[in-house]
Amino acid sequence: MTIVKDSIVSDMSLAPNGHLKIDWVQEHMPVLNRIREQFEQNKPFAGLKVAISLHLEAKTAYLAKVVQAGGADVTITGSNPLSTQDDVCAALVEDGIRVFAKYNPSPEEYKSHLIYTLETKPDLIIDDGGDLVTILHSEREDLAGQVRGGAEETTTGILRLKALEKSGNLKFPMIAVNDAFCKYLFDNRYGTGQSVWDGINRTTNLVVAGKTVVVVGYGWCGKGVAMRAKGLGAKVIVTEIDAIKAVEAYMDGFEVMSMSEAAKHGDYFVTVTGNKDVIRGEHMEQMKDGAILSNAGHFDVEINKVELEALADSKRTVRQDIEEYQLKDGRKIYLLAEGRLVNLAAGDGHPAEIMDMTFALQAVSLAHVNENYEQLGAKVVDVPYELDENVARLKLEALGIGIDTLSAEQKSYLDSWTE
Fold first, then answer.
1. Domains along the chain?
2. Which residue of 126, 165, 287, 378 sits 20 to 30 Å from the alpha carbon of 18, by its own alpha carbon?
3. CA dihedral 369, 78, 189, 130 (to 10 degrees)
4. What are the binding positions for substrate in this chain (predicted)?
5. 298 annotated ligand binder
6. What pLDDT does residue 4 have?
7. How far apart are CA 62 and CA 229, in angstroms?
8. pLDDT < 50 stretches in the chain
């Protein structure tokens, strides 16, 4: 561990490789490049401090640099112990961004990095999963008074924020970036769909075609995981608690059943619910020998690891990011990436072109909060449609795609109830 320039990182000698990674994603993030140009001119965050907690890899690093280009004093930390990339952290320190993060910290170190980030007394925050907001509303309320507001990245974080709002305890406005069209339609569906299988395939080096994949949860992330599993040649089973989503999965061509039944059939299991204990010991007892468990939800609580440990006679690491649990009857169950986000803990996360749109939304949403925080009030706020649509238009421009516009007569027709 290295303490340098008010930062805590693993190894500053790794910075050159981190710069290469950041340069690569910058070349493939044209929307964020356009927003950076605007920020460099307008300086929306001049004189302000911004704290960021996100999966700390190259795409996130470039978002931090874009916010910095808008005039902010930026501090960043990771939002998951196994997704932080040490070379990227070192590169950010060289670029003048304060960093408190390293790969695979202890739980105590991980918590301390979050607190160090908040002790910079930020005016604005970008959160992923709600850890920064939770600390500001519990043990470090003394640091919350200066916060104007922020933006939240994930489904899990939005659930936590809405619980805070419902209880009447939310102290500042938070924009629900996760719920924006340009986030969940693309990031959650195409980003998660591809990156989950990138992580599983590179980790296991096993074939997917002909196998049975159980996707637990059919939200936008689950839709993407199921779609890509089908494309790889798998038979796909979906489990759900929502009757409407279950019908949707059935209409999309997938088998739908309870987890108790699906547990008997799966070769691969992918959890994407945002909830805890969706795969439990009772399900593991039904699984076939060689079943592979993975999680693509934010926290490592979707697969009950305590109950898996209790069922096992022995445990060993058989390959990087693969733990083998041998059960008392001789069956083996494999857990990927300690049950953490398989696409980030065992991979590089979503493709750069996908995160280009999501992080563009983060950047413009943060500017919107800063401009309007007094009017927004202490609540969870939707991304304004015009910001969402503008990101989509910038994406189309980058792709060289033109679309139609309504004529004055067509607008009049749509606005009228008499024609």
1. 2-183+350-399 (3.40.50.1480), 190-345 (3.40.50.720)
2. 126
3. -50
4. 128, 153, 183, 187
5. yes
6. 63
7. 30
8. none
